Amino acid sequence: MEESYVKLFVQQTSLYNRLLLPQTLCGGLPHLIQSWLRNCLYAALLYFIASLFCFTFWKSYSSSSKADADADADAADAAATGTFISREGMVEQIGVTLKAVPLGVFLHTGMEYVVEMGWTKCFPHISDVGLLAYLCYVLVYLALVEAGTYWVHRLLHQIKPLYKHLHRRHHLYRKEASLSPFAGWAVHPVEGILMGLPHGIAMFIVPTHFTTHLALFLAQGAWGVAIHDRSNEMHWPLMDAGYHTSHHTSSHHNYGNFTIWMDQLFGTLQPPNSRIKCYSP
Question: What pLDDT, on the 0 to 100 scale, is given for residue 67?
């Protein structure tokens, strides 16, 4: 790849760094360190914004809190009958997430680096390939990410050492009442890297518009928050929160990323049922 062409990627990431980082403090740092700091900040902002936009959860949580406040039951009875995670529980999930983010974003920063070095099939402008080719590439990219994320997630469950040392951290929230949007990223940092790896691999296989890659990676992060909001809204073919709540309570179904198609293909789909209490407006 020509050096002048590759420089376009560096210019793009440098622009993102300047937009988000205070240059008086960070301007003298190496480009790679700036990108890592920017990705840490991006991740934290996305996490909290996506969590706060889970209106279904917060509406139900507010109603539940009001009902608990009006009840005459003592504290022990309230704990036994509670249907929502406590504030302390959500703070714990936030703490786990913020500890994982600095290491987790090494993957994304590394993916930007290999793009800037010209080692991937990324291209900077849609006009470089044309709109039709761009759309076809996006579909192939999404298919690879969907398949890759499904198998990473499934293997994190089926390979016992991986589950014990990595994925079990996230599945401490195995009861519906322990879930909240803040649980979405409450994972071991190495697991976060593994779950994002399909995005990086896809860039070496299929021509990928760099900005679209960044947007889809961020979309997966926001989606990971949203599917922990316990809503029972289902929009075929999406792997909605109802499916993922069922995953947390069974641990052997619904490994998919954005859609249910991989679970349907490999026989691991379990629709939410009446035993799973989900809340919707």
Answer: 54
Q: How far apart are CA 186 and CA 136, in angstroms?
A: 34
Q: In the beta sheet, which residues pair with residue 209?
A: 123
Is 174 in contact with 251 (CB distance < 8 Å)?
A: yes
Intervals of the chain under pLDDT 70:
1-3, 65-82, 273-281
Residues 6+ apart with CB under 8 A from 239: 227, 254, 256, 257, 258, 259, 260, 263
Tokens 């009442």, residue?
177
End-to-end CA distance of the chain: 52
Task: Find tokens 């440098």 and name the residue.
Answer: 14
Contacts of 264 (CB under 8 A, 6+ apart): none
